[in-house]
Design goal:
Blueprint (H helix, E strand, L loop, with lengths): L1 H24 L13 E10 L5 E2 L8 E3 L4 E9 L5 E6 L5 E5 L3 E2 L1
Antiparallel strand pairs: 1-4, 1-7, 2-3, 4-5, 5-6
C-alpha cells in the first residue's frame, strides 16, 4: 500500500512543479515594434501636442512609454480596429513607439 501512495505524491509534485515552471517562464507583455506595421510610410513628419501619448503597442490600452514631444517622424503604420491608423515612429529623443492617427497634424 505504501508504493501507490508514494507514486501518487511524486506525480502530484511533478505536476505542481511543471505548472510553476510555466508560470515563472511565461513571457510578459512587451512592446510591438515595426513588425506590426502593414504599410510603409517612411520619413513622414507630423506635429503633435506635447500631451500626445506614445504607446508601446498600437492600442490605446497599451503602456504609454513617452510623451512631451512636438514632432513625430513616421516609419510605418497599421489600421486600428476602429478604422483609424496607428503610426509607428520616433520623437527627437530617439524614443520609438505608436501614436494614434487622430493625434497627429501635418
Amino acid at each position: 500500500m505504501k508504493k501507490p501512495l508514494t507514486s501518487a505524491v511524486l506525480a502530484g509534485a511533478t505536476v505542481a512543479l511543471a505548472f510553476t515552471s510555466v508560470a515563472v517562464t511565461a513571457p510578459t507583455a512587451s512592446a510591438v515594434g515595426s513588425s506590426a506595421c502593414t504599410r510603409n510610410d517612411a520619413n513622414r513628419n507630423y506635429n503633435m501636442s506635447i500631451y500626445t501619448p506614445i504607446h508601446a503597442s498600437p492600442s490605446g490600452s497599451s503602456k504609454v512609454i513617452a510623451g512631451g514631444a512636438n514632432d513625430f517622424t513616421v516609419k510605418c503604420s497599421k489600421s486600428g480596429h476602429d478604422g483609424h491608423r496607428w503610426w509607428y515612429g520616433y520623437i527627437s529623443t530617439g524614443k520609438q513607439g505608436w501614436v494614434w492617427g487622430a493625434n497627429l497634424q501635418s
